[in-house]
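Hey, resending since the last one bounced:
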Amino acid sequence: MSDGRLPVRRRWIGWTIGIFVALFVIALGWVTVRGIGAVNDLQQVAKDSSQLKASIATADLDGAEPIAERIAHHAQSAHALTSDPIWQAFGAIPLIGPNFRAVSEVAEIADDVADKALTPLLAVAGEFDLAGLGFSGGAIDLEPFATIEKPLGEASATLTAAQLQAQRIDEDATLPPLADAVRQMRSTVTQAAGAVGALHGAAVLLPTMLGGEGPRNYVLAMQNNAELRSSGGIIGSSALLHAENGKITLVRQASTPDFPPLDAPLPVSDSTVALFEDRPGRFMQNITSIPDFSEAGPTIAARWEGRFGGTVDGVIAVDTVVAANLMQATGDLTFGTFTATPDNIVSILLSEIYATIPDPRVQDEVFAQAASALFGAALSGGDPKALIGALAESADEGRIRIWSAHEDEQKVLAASSLGGTIPDDDADATYVGVLINDSTGGKMDYYTRASISTAVGSCDGKPTTQLRMTWTNDAPADAATTLPAYVTADGWYGVPAGSVRTLIALYGPQGATPSHIDRDGAEEGVQTTTIDGRSVVQHEVLLAPGESTTVTLEFQGTGAGERLTQVLHTPMVETPKTTREKLVCAS
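The structure tokens again:
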């Protein structure tokens, strides 16, 4: 006969469940309270960061210091609140775990940046005009750079590590408000890493590159985005710059007719020949088709030395949009019959000039006048902080590429975005990209547009990276009759007036190979090669006004399927929209 009590085993199970539930409720309360505190701290960090940015921009260092101290305090508090074992345990729970891990990592990033980057940056800012880089009266004071290089290096290393950690956070697995916060934080850290990295690079390179240890000569190659090449556009004009003791002067200018085609081409890489035959080695305007600027730079230098003699210490390539960015600092310019503003300079140089001036020789004269006017205004009348900001913005968009003939400097440049090289893939990032080269022979790329998407996942059970590019000819329907023949090429190279013929090359992760290739869902003949272990597939497409086409590649093998896939692309008049999509296997 039962005495009404549960068996010992069942009572033990009941007590165990009860204790577990009680502990879970206590732990949940613990992380809730700490989570609220951490979120409040991080919100204060975001608010104070905006104030700090404003204080530094106005050189109010006395006001910046207490703000930086508040940021450090709140960041350290948030990190402490989200790094205890109970919080970390909740981070391992399916579904809700990514939210806890994301908050913890954001707090850790904020703490590291506040402790290891803000402090050295403020110390440097107290002694040196970081925003203007010591630029005054058309020259840069090179002496302070030796002092600021080390603290800038420390800050740059911290921000770079923070950027990589931020990229690893899977915001798609978190709740929408938290996902937005992660994206905002990632964007802020990326911008800071780029800016401080550029400052550190300047501190390393400028003392020697600007003639602090002897005079230097550089070729400035100006690219025209209306006729695209891999690094931005054809070389429409060029100039020789002289740098000595921080002062830069314009020595001479040249245009395409000064460099007639070579009977015997300069040597170029096998991959360049596979994509573009020997044209980059024969034609000055085609050298920027070479995807790697560490190869294009010395080729440009060789052409200049072969034509004008002397020794070239380096090459700087910029595109037309850089002029618009610089004019935000210099103000309006007048050259020829044009009055240019930051809003219309691109339209003038890439479109209006051809409609107004039909003679190419006179066009070249006006281009030279524009370059001279902009160069003079930048060195004598521009606000230093605004000028440096304009150059930084242009560099972030890939519109400035630099090669140095001096090995130690080139090593630093090649490792930065200014070097114009495709970075090696590593554990933190996989790179894919799109190279665009016009073969219309006109200036129709003022009217072209592009969008690029990536997707990663698995196809046929194999890790896969998908790269897709949509290319559009946005010229007016009556372009054949309303646009100048110099713009449409008027059929000179076998392309109907108003249409655009383009070489579009897509490349994948290092070590991966194409498993699927299509254009608008169909297969067609392509050119293939490899660049530093990357498979490259190139289509030639012809589009009439209003037409679009989409090229899709899927890569499998080493590096494919990595979530942290970054896209590089040819700089255009309008920057292509780049998105990350959910993988739908085209195969």
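The longest strand covers residues 448-459.

Sorry for the duplicate.
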